[in-house]
Design goal:
With about 190 residues, the protein is an alpha+beta fold. It contains 6 helices and 8 strands; from the N terminus they run ααββαβββαααβββ. The structure holds a DNA duplex (13 and 13 nucleotides).
Length: about 190
DNA sequence: CATGGGATTGACT
DNA sequence: GTCAATCCCATGC
């Protein structure tokens, strides 16, 4: 998917990315959970403004923003909105599609449900690291492609974002309804379509 | 130049 | 349920 897909409001892209396929290093998965981040709210790294770290966030859309969290995990984001606007979609969970054995090797785990059910897990399963920061999501090492048959029209649920301390109340987390591969079970009563 | 915190995970009680 | 691990970088002196 080219830059035009990402050159839109980050909330739209976050919802449209559900069902799309991420592929890297011989493994791939379907996106089942995302979160939107925008420079206008304090949970986003871009909130602090343009720095060496957040530079890709303010760059052209359709680019990966990979950063290290808690000193251990790499998290994968897709940069959105026009260049100059700091916004990105965090890929939080995948449903494993291809390369399951590679994923198991990299994760040291067997259950398919545990391979990509978290932002730090899926980067490990797909061997995505900080080197891929600022690389294109179309024609680059990481490839994002449109939903396979059956995933074009996925029913979505929205809810509050996870694991952040600021602006945690914004319902900017999206997931495919009923997917068992999400990072955390959806709370009861949180079934509003986005 | 030193320090502290973070969009997480996994192991342990 | 609680807690440590561990590195990049924004912030402050």
């Amino acid at each position: 998917m080219g830059p035009d897909f990402y050159d839109r409001p980050v909330l739209e892209v976050a919802q449209d990315l559900i069902g799309c396929v991420v592929a890297h290093a011989g493994a791939s998965g379907i996106i089942v959970e995302t979160e939107a981040y925008h420079h206008s709210e304090p949970a986003c790294h871009a909130y602090a403004g343009l720095t060496a770290r957040t530079k890709p966030l303010f760059g052209p859309p359709g680019v990966a923003y990979v950063y290290r969290s808690y000193g251990i995990h790499a998290l994968l984001n897709a940069v959105c909105e026009p260049a100059g606007v700091g916004a990105a979609v965090l890929i939080r969970a995948l449903e494993p599609l291809d390369g399951l054995e590679l994923m198991r090797e990299r994760r040291g785990l067997e259950p398919a449900l545990d391979l990509c059910s978290g932002p730090g897990k899926l980067t490990q399963a797909l061997a995505i690291d900080l080197e891929l920061n600022a690389s294109p999501l179309d024609g680059g090492p990481i490839e994002l492609t449109p939903p396979p048959p059956g995933w074009e029209e996925v029913e979505l649920v929205a809810g509050p974002r996870i694991g952040i301390t600021r602006a945690a109340e914004l319902p900017w987390r999206f997931a495919a309804r009923g997917s068992r591969n999400v990072s955390k079970p959806w709370p009861r009563g949180q079934r509003d379509a986005a």
